[in-house]
Amino acid sequence: MIRRLPIVPTLLVLVAVGIMIRLGLWQLDRQQEKEALIARYAAAESMSADVPFPRSAKEAEQHLYRHSRVDCRAVTDRTTKAGSNRSGEAGMAHYASCRTADGGTAVVVLGWSRDPSAPDWRGGLASGIVAPGPRLVADPPLAGLQPNARPDPSDIPNNHLAYAVQWFLFAATALVIYAVAVRKRLR
After folding, report:
1. Which residues of the chain carry a pLDDT beneath 70?
2. Do residues 48 and 67 lie in contact, with contact meaning Cβ atoms separated by under 8 Å?
3. Which of 48, 62, 126, 146 is the most buried (most CB within 10 A)?
């Protein structure tokens, strides 16, 4: 008597493996897109002309790592977060949420210190680098603080190759497990 492969389970496994391989290929495409994006951001760092501060995350995509200015008419909130200075020392980054002259809002990273107490900065003109968020990392720092670490496009994670390898390994593992299960069944 000849034993045959189970049709439905075999088709399900092959469809799942096909999906996993497609996801791996998609991650390889994403890796190339991310590398191009990081290269564009790295080129933006050397541009000296100011850009308008972005009003949204979508608008920020075009202005990240460029020089900009914010006219902070009123500070609406102050926050302190862990951060590092230009020398790489750990400490506190001091943030101010602002209402701008045009009625919009902006987040300004004022500077760095070891002291967690927020400085009493009441607003004014801030210039610096547009960082993800979007937020303006003040350069020069404000309120008597030290300079924060500069926003760096190389800090953007690009782990798509690892994800692609992971999907390909999932596909191979599924095939091996299915082959072992079928082999046991056919004995």
Report:
1. 1-2
2. yes
3. 126
Q: Which pLDDT does position 101 carry in this prediction?
A: 85
pLDDT digits (tens, 9 = 90+) for 109-120: 999 999 988 888
Taking the C-alpha atoms of residue 26 and residue 11, their distance in angstroms, rounded to an integer, is 22
pTM: 0.75
> Among candidates 37, 66, 40, which has minimal Cα distance to 51?
66
